Structure formats: structure tokens, C-alpha cells
Amino acid sequence: MRRTFFLFLFAAPLLAQQSMVETAPPKGPAIVYPKDVILVKGAEPSASDAKTPLPEGGRIADDAYRNDYFGMTYALPRGLKQPFAGPPPSDSGGYVLVQLQAPEKTAVLIAAQDLFFSASAKTAADLVSYKKETLPSYYDVERPPAELEIAGHPFARFDYVSPVAGLHWFVLATEVRCHAVQFVLTGRDTKAMETIVGEMNAMKIGNAGAPACVRDYAAGANVLYRVEPVLTEHKFNRIPVRIVIDTKGRVKHIHFLAAFPQQAAIITDALLQWRFKPYLVNGEPAEVETGLVFGGAATKVVKAGD
Amino acid sequence: MSRRIVLLTVLVSLLTVPLIAQSDPGVRGGAAGAGNALSSVLANNPTTILNFFNDAKARFQEIDSVAGAVAGEEGVGLGPRYNSRSCAACHAQPAVGGSSPFQNPQVGDATADGARNTVPSFITINGPVREARFPFFFNTNNPNGGVEDLYTIVGRVDASTCTSLAQPDFNFAISTNDIIFRIPTPTFGSGLIENIDDATLLTNFNNQQSNSFGVSGAFNRNGNDGTIARFGWKAQNKSLEIFAGEAYNVEQGVSNELFTQERPLPGEDRNTGLPSTCRVNATPEDHTNFNTTAIGTLSDTVQFAMFMRLLAPPTPSTTTPGGSTSINNGRSLFNAIGCNTCHTPSLTTSRSAVTPSLGQATANLFSDLEIHHMGTTLNDNVGQGDAGGDQFRTAPLWGLGQRIFFLHDGRTNNLINAILAHNSSGSEANTSSALFFNNLTTSQKQDVLNFLRSL
After folding, report:
1. Is the pLDDT of residue B217 over 70?
2. Of the candidates B34, B75, B347, which has an alpha carbon nearest to the alpha carbon of residue B197?
3. The pLDDT of residue B433 is above 60
4. How many CB pairs under 8 A join A and B?
5. Which helix or strand (DSSP H or E) is residue B191 part of?
6. Which residue, of A9, A50, A143, A210, has the greatest Cβ tally within 10 A?
7. pLDDT in tens, A208-266
8. B444 touching A, CB under 8 A?
9. Cis peptide leading into residue B284 (ω within 30°)
10. B442 touches chain A (CB under 8 A)
11. B21 touches chain A (CB under 8 A)
């Protein structure tokens, strides 16, 4: 009896390993993997809690796009749908929020650029100007960057056209929580496009209750105590992180735009130990949102022409 | 009478609609626009380089057997597991160094020289050359992703003591959706790609950031030195030599100085490894040859890399298909709708210490060498380096006009289907591909297709 028990102990790992061998079907019911589902992810977005709204957390419901992070409710233009969701946030701070399309209709792309992680712009107006400065020669400018107000918010607008394609682009950008939120309209019918611009006035955008956003707040003398995260695997990818610091100078919320899960765990452990000078508004401590970049290749990207 | 005319008109219009709609012009005929050495290599600059290229090309075409003793198969080290028996067998279209040919050599490889393999259902004579990977170890959620070689040497006249070695259970993998495929990447112009500095790629990356198409991208960085890797479907390999060494080991089963052991399947390697009876040869089977001089000293792996490095890029056609006006128009439209955001038309190489044609040259590769999220349709659930399951290197488009099969797994030979596959949940290419399908006219789409087939 005792011998049987020992044999079982030795045999168990071997039996378990057999299912790893590809030359024979495993014992027991087969796991069938779902098709068209991304199960093996690269660097991906994550957050330290599930309740704090995130930029990528918007959704379409009742013919409107809602995004709690940006305080945004936008009624979809008639006839447009989002056939496919966009990609996850990028390690350069880019978000595709919504892509609205339909055959032969104006396409509407709503995107956001986290201005903490942009190499080319510190404001939404900068971003639009940069777009104009770097506009390839096969486009013609139709309307140089100019300010206007939409839905009670300052926007920068820039129009250009591709003569060969007969397609026009209207780019409209505003700033919310240190993000440039862009509406990019593409189509042949400029009247229809203007209608969509006009309808944007009905949109709600802006999150008045959000923490102040301050670029590079987590640097220099503002940091009272820090623990360096030591990455083990995947050391060289760029890891942009947004944090919210509470009124006592502790990290309250962490949002990874793109990190491997193990990286997120290691950086979270470190950041929760960091201490900051409280951010002051009119002499009173206030919550503040800022950005940090981790990873071995936090490469300074050189602006074209520099 | 008038009713008949109406019916006839409807019938005629129904029949002609497909003719009017845009279509893939198909594989561009005529002479292969690829396969030659770079011009400075042909000019033998520096002296003797042409000899190195010619020797490298011959080795690339050599057929391997287990001991090199089979007539006409003098390469040493095949197996014990393998996908095919020669580099050039798979890198063949439209010339040596290219991609999957019209006739799949893997069907014949299964039983060559007495081998007793079953040809898997996904390998067909008119289908693409394929390697298979199982994203997960069977019945677990543990990522695998390694190559599952199709065949073994069992039964071959030169298999020696290797009398029992099972093929992977492809039927089970298919039944559980635990299998994906990769086809050979063409290698023309690879030396130019190898010689593009990281700074150039970073500048291009920055220039992309103002795009209006929702494209971002990232680099697959080498885990050891942090620099940008660039070869393979997911840009997982840093250099041509690593690329060659890995392929020699994985695809033909030849151990070499970069990958020094005989290669078991990933699952085998978690258990007991390959049986000793199937580790027939001393290792590494491919190595530096100390007893010869000059070119003969080099290992096959070094020379495979040299061949790819010295291959000229493909030459596009200015007139075929569709004529120069259509091709030029297509190029402009390709740029206008943002395809060039990822498929960067050209990048400049650094100074070269190898040969003048590789130095400060314009590489018209149509790739940014970045990895991009391609969404659920193209996702293969294989992670390689920093690339996740749905992230792929922007496939260089040079030479596309003479390619037969498209996308990483060769799932289509129709260019329109290939573009359509860019469109799915989570893809960075959604906006541009939707502009192609939704916002270009039929003749504009045809111009884009003609342009692509001219490359």
C-alpha cells in the first residue's frame, strides 16, 4: 500500500507532463481555444483599480459614444457605425477611441494623444500645428490651423485635401486632462462634413471634477521618497504610466498605457512606496495627475528637423 | 418585347458588374525582378565579394540529407525533425531567396529518401509552404508558440539509429484551434534592412505620430542589448545571421554555431528531449571548417546570412500591370489614405563596411520595421520578444507583385482579401483599410492594386 502511494507521487508529474507533448493527444477532455480572441497579449493597458475611469474605457450605447474619463457624450452622426474597436493604447500615448465608418460616407476617427508622452506637442493646438508643419506634400492645405469654439470648448481646426483621392480631412482637437482629443473627419462631401462639425456642438466634453494634470510633477524635488522598480523580463520596451497622487502625497491610482503584466506588478509595488510633496491649489493640498515613463528604451524621440 | 429588353439589360448588368469591380491583377508575369546580387557585388567591390556571393547562393540551394551521403543531397545534418530540406526550396518565388513557390516542396519532403511521414492536411501541392506552431501546450493555458516541425527522418535511407520518432499530432491541434501557420519571408534586399540605423527608424517613428489614421506602432527590441530587432514576421530576430542560424536549426533541423543542439519539439524539450537514437550526428552539424581556406572556412550559416545580405532588392515595374498612369495614381492614393504610415516607402541605410551598394542607400522597402496591432483576424496568439499575439512587423511590400501568397500564414493569394484582413477589432490599420474600401472609387481601388502588383 505504501509502495503504491510512492509510485503515485512519482508518476503524477510524468502524467501531468504528458499533456505537454505535442505528439500525442492529451488525456481527458480537450480544451478548445476560441477563434478570433487575442489570448497572448504583448504590452497591454492595466490599472491599479477597476473603478477609476480610464481614457480607453469609452463605449458606444444608444447611438452615442460615452467616455467617463473625458466626461464625453457624443451622439454618433447618422448612418455611421463602429464596425471594429480600435487598438489598445500605444507606448507613445496614442489612443484610438472610436472609428466610425460607412460606405461612401464621411469617416470619423476620434483619437486622443496623452500630452505627457508626446514628443511633438505639449498642447492640442501644438499638435494641430505640428500636423500642419509635417503635412506631406501630396496634401494641400485647405484651412490653416485656427481656433474655434465647439460645445463651449476651445478647439483647434485644420483642414487639408488629397487632390488625387478627392478626399478632404477636417482635424479638430481640444484638450481634456492633458490629452489632445482629436476628431478626424475624412470624406468627399465637405457639406456633409460641415454638418457633422456643426452637430459636435451638441456634444458634452470635459471633466470638471478630475484632478489637476501637471506634466513632469513626479520629478525633482516633488519626489520625497522613491523606490526604483527593477524589471526582469522585457526590460527595453517603453512603459508610459499615468498616476494620480492624493492630497497626502501618496499614489492613489496607477494606469499603465502599455506594460507586460509582470512589469505592471513590479512598477506598482515600487510606486505605492513613493512619496510626493502634496500638490497645492490656492495653498490647499489637491489631487494631481501626472505621467512617468519606465523601461530601458525610454528613448528621446527626435523631432523632425531638429 | 420591352419586358424582354429590360430582363436582358438586367442580366447583362449582373454579369458585367464583377468585371467592372476592382480585382487583383494576380502575380506579375515576365522576368523575375529579383534574385541578383547588389550592383557593387556584381562589380566585385570589394575584390572577391562576388565569389563569396556565388558560394553562398550555392549553399542556399544545397539539399540536406542526414549525413550528406545521399547523391545530390550533400548538405549535412537534416533532422531529426524538419520542415523542408533546403533553404531555396521554400525561398523560391520568383527567384532564389524569395518566398513560397507555386508547387509546395513539402509534399515531396514527407517521403523523400524513404521517409515515412504523413502529409498534414494544411500542406497541399498548390498551397503555401508552411511551418506550424501550437500557440498553447495541449490542454493547458501555457503559451507555447514554438515551431512544430512537420516531419521526422524516420524511415530515410540515412536515418541510421533513428527508427521511432512521432510527428506532432496536427489533427488534435486543428480540432482544438491550437495551431497557426507561418510562410517564408522573402529575403531580397535584406542587407539594406540590416543596415538601417536605429536612429533612422526612431525618426521615422516620430514622423508617423502626427498621422490622421490612428496608427501608433512600437519596436520589438532585442532582449539582450535593447536595440531594434527587425527580421521575421514579428521582427523577433536582430540580425541576418541569427535569422539564418535559427532557420537552419528549426526548419531543416541542422544544429549550428548559433543554435548548437539538435532541436526537439517544444513539448519534447520540457520532458526528456530528443531520444539519443535520433541525435545521429556530432554537433554542431554546421560549423566553421578549419581544414580549408578562404570561403570554404565559413559555416553554412554565415554564408546563408551573406547571401541574404548581398541580394539586391526587387525591381518594380513602371508599366505592369495597368500602365504607368494607373501605377503612379495608385502610389499617390496609397499615400493619401495612409497606407504609407506603416508601409513607409523608403528608409536610408547607414554607411556600410561590407560593400558600397549597402551604404547610404535608399531602401524602398515599404515598411517601418515596427510592430503594429493587427487585430483579431490576423492575431495568431504567438508572442515573440516584445510582440504579442496580434502584433506583426509591417511586412515589407517590395517584391509584392511577384508574390503568390499573402499574410503571415499564406491564407490568401488575393490582394483584396489581404487588405480586407487588415480590418478587424483591435487593428491599427482599420481607418486606412476602411478608407480604401469605403471611400475610394472602383477605378481608384484598381489603381492601388495595380501599384501594389507593380512592386
Report:
1. yes
2. B347
3. yes
4. 248
5. helix B190-194
6. A210
7. 889 999 999 999 999 999 999 999 889 999 999 999 999 999 999 999 999 999 999 99
8. yes
9. yes
10. no
11. no
CB atoms within 10 A of CB B11: 10
Q: Which residue has the cell 498551397?
A: B127
B409 CB-contact burial (10 Å; exposed 0-12 / middle 13-18 / buried 19+):
buried
Domain locations in chain A as residue ranges: 44-202, 212-294
Task: Report the candidate in B152, B79, B77 with the shortest Cα–Cα distance to residue B116.
Answer: B152
Give CATH for domain A212-294. 3.30.2420.10
Who among B381, B386, B427 is closest to A84 (CB)?
B427
Q: How high is the mean pLDDT of chain A?
A: 90
List the single residue in A with minimal CA-CA distance to B372: A87
Contact by Cβ (8 Å): B99, B185: yes
How many other C-beta atoms are found inside a 10 Å radius of the C-beta of residue A4? 8
By Cβ distance, the residue of A20, A40, A101 closest to B267 is: A20
Q: CA-CA distance, B30 to A156, in Å (whole number)?
A: 52
- Mark yes or no for CB contact A118/B444 under 8 Å: no
Q: What is the mean pLDDT of residues B386-413?
A: 98
CB B221 within 8 A of CB B385: yes
pLDDT digits (tens, 9 = 90+) for B320-368: 999 999 999 999 999 999 999 999 999 999 999 999 999 999 999 999 9
Asked if residue A87 lies in contact with residue B426, where contact means CB atoms within 8 angstroms, the answer is yes
Determine whether the interchain pair A22/B219 forms a contact, defined as Cβ–Cβ distance below 8 Å. no
112-141 of B, contacting A, C-beta below 8 A:
134-141
Is residue B29 less than 8 Å (CB to CB) from chain A?
no
**Structure confidence at residue B5 as a pLDDT band (50, 70, 90):** low
**Is B224 within 8 Å of chain A by CB?**
no
Are the beta carbons of B180 and A40 closer than 8 angstroms?
no
Contacts of B343 (CB under 8 A, 6+ apart): B334, B366, B367, B368, B394, B397
Give B444's contacts in chain A (Cβ within 8 Å).
Answer: 165
Higher-scoring residue by pLDDT: B302, A298: B302
Give the position of cell 522598480: A229
Residue for grid cell 469609452:
A58
pLDDT band, residue A27 (cuts 50/70/90)? confident
**Domain A44-202 CATH (choose: 3.90.76.10, 3.40.1000.10, 3.20.20.10, 3.40.190.290):** 3.40.1000.10
Please count the other Cβ atoms lying within 10 Å of the Cβ belonging to residue B328: 16
Selected residue with higher pLDDT from B19 and B88 = B88
Find the length of chain B: 455
Show Cβ contacts of residue A22 under 8 Å, excluding neighbours closer than 6 positions: B134, B137, B138, B144, B148, B168, B169, B173, B265, B266, B267, B268
Q: Which of B217, B218, B382 sits opposite A40 (nearest CB)?
A: B382
Taking the CA of residue B421 and the nearest CA in chain A, the distance in Å comes to 12
- Three-class HEC string of chain A: CHHHHHHHHHHHHHHHHHCCCCCCCCCCCCCCCCCCCCCCCCCEEEECCCCCCCHHHCEEECCEEEECCCCEEEECCCCCECCCCCCCCCCCCEEEEEEEECCCCCEEEEEEEECCCCCCCCCHHHHHHHHHHCCCCCCEEEEEEEEEEECCEEEEEEEEEECCCCEEEEEEEEEECCEEEEEEEEECCHHHHHHHHHHHHHCECCCCCCCEECCCCCCHHHEEECCCCCCCCCCCCCEEEEEEECCCCEEEEEEEEEECHHHHHHHHHHHCCCEECCEEECCEEECEEEEEEECCCCCCCCCCCC
Distance CA B257, CA B254 (A): 10
Preceding amide of A13 cis, omega within 30: no
